[in-house]
Specification:
283 residues; alpha/beta; TIM Barrel; 10 helices; binds pterin-6-yl-methyl-monophosphate
């Protein structure tokens, strides 16, 4: 029996997904966790800090990133997923390749997270269906799924486009046999979107949450957040965006997001706990 989405859903609060990039070039942590032992140690730290699930990715989508060869990606993620599985740590695999998703599933991964929403690889929906695992379909309109830079023309209504395009992804996945009860969606903050579009999507989060599928929010350390500090002339490296990320987490949790995907877990876990306690204050 594959992992059910309900098992990855923290009772009474937003789920916290910790990011583990097993890459050479991710924009905030590239190269630090390429060694499987270092990756395992970092995953343990993320869990100790309050992560419910660890998202393992071996391919960066940062602007300017080049794609990692398929066999290298599959080997890197499967190895780390296997190590985490041996410690009963829940994992998702962040990949656009069906073969990598399958290798991760064989190593015991609990969820498939595809930033292309299943569009980058014609076999992805079939593998999602075959494994029966929970999936995250992220919105990213792109001609070629290389890096996340550039923008798409949303005719002034990014919220409408993202809702409609996510609905189409869900339909395609379901047509291929993915159980609707295993599907989550993600507006894809920072993926071919302007800062204004990212804020419009966050503003509209209650609308997205009101839809049929649980919503995952990935704002952590993204450029539209560091921009807040840059505007004030402050340091604005990706890590400097951790407090702003925690603020997004609190507001996203308040808006009913199912999950937040973050690098710095401890403060985001506090933020979702605060939002949950605040909600219980209604009595
Ligand atoms: N962002 C990144 C990678 N994977 N997955 C989902 N579901 N949502 C996201 O927003 C997302 C993602 C890019 O960020 P990273 O390079 O810091 O991991």
């Amino acid at each position: 029996m594959p992992t059910q989405l309900a098992e990855l859903t923290a009772p009474g609060r937003t789920t916290v997904m910790g990011i583990l990039n097993v890459t050479a070039d991710s924009f905030s942590d590239g190269g630090r966790y390429l060694d499987p032992e270092a990756a395992l140690n970092h995953a343990r730290e993320l869990v100790a800090a309050g992560a419910d699930i660890i998202d393992v990715g071996a391919e960066s989508t940062r602007p300017g990133a080049t794609r990692v060869p398929a066999d290298v990606e599959a080997k890197r993620v499967a190895e780390v997923v296997g190590l985490l599985r041996a410690e009963s740590i829940r994992t998702s695999v962040d990949t656009m390749r069906a073969a990598t998703a399958l290798a991760a599933a064989e190593a015991g991964v609990d969820m498939i997270n595809d930033v292309s929403g299943g569009l980058a690889d014609p076999d992805m929906y079939r593998v999602m269906a075959q494994t029966g695992l929970p999936v995250c379909l992220m919105h990213w309109r792109a001609d070629a799924f290389g890096d996340a830079s550039g923008t798409a023309d949303h005719g002034g209504d990014v919220v409408r486009d993202v809702r409609e395009e996510l609905a189409r992804l869900v339909e395609s996945a379901a047509d291929a046999g993915v159980a609707p009860s295993q599907i989550t969606v993600d507006p894809g903050l920072g993926f071919a979107k302007t800062p204004e579009e990212n804020w419009a999507l966050l503003h509209a989060l209650p609308e997205l949450v009101a839809g049929e599928y649980p919503v995952l929010v990935g704002a952590s350390r993204k450029r539209f957040l560091t921009a807040i500090r840059a505007e004030r002339g402050l340091d604005h490296t990706p890590i400097d965006a951790d407090p702003a990320t925690a603020a997004v987490t609190a507001l996203a949790a308040q808006a009913g997001a199912w999950c937040v995907r973050v690098h710095e877990v401890a403060v985001s876990r506090d933020a979702v706990d605060v939002a949950a306690a605040w909600g219980r204050g209604r009595g």
